[in-house]
Amino acid sequence: MTDTTDLTETMDTTAVGDGGLRFEVTEHDDLALQLDALRTAVEQLRAEVVRLDADLDESRRLNLRAAELLDVVYEELGARRAGDGRV
Description:
Layout: E1 14-18, E2 21-25, H1 27-84
Antiparallel strand pairs: 1-2
């Protein structure tokens, strides 16, 4: 025969209420709240990764532009030296 012990006896329950409203937060509810908190944290982390990825792309773009400008400066300096006859 199957044991039909009340499951609430094995769960950690806490009474929560405000005024006339009362309900029980069971261990299962606590896990659900933790899961919701974890989902929220994952969503925030994903948003942060997207932001950081965009920042990284912008940084790469700026570094490439800086390298291009340095090339122009070095070419200009080289041309001026060659025009002056100095080495």
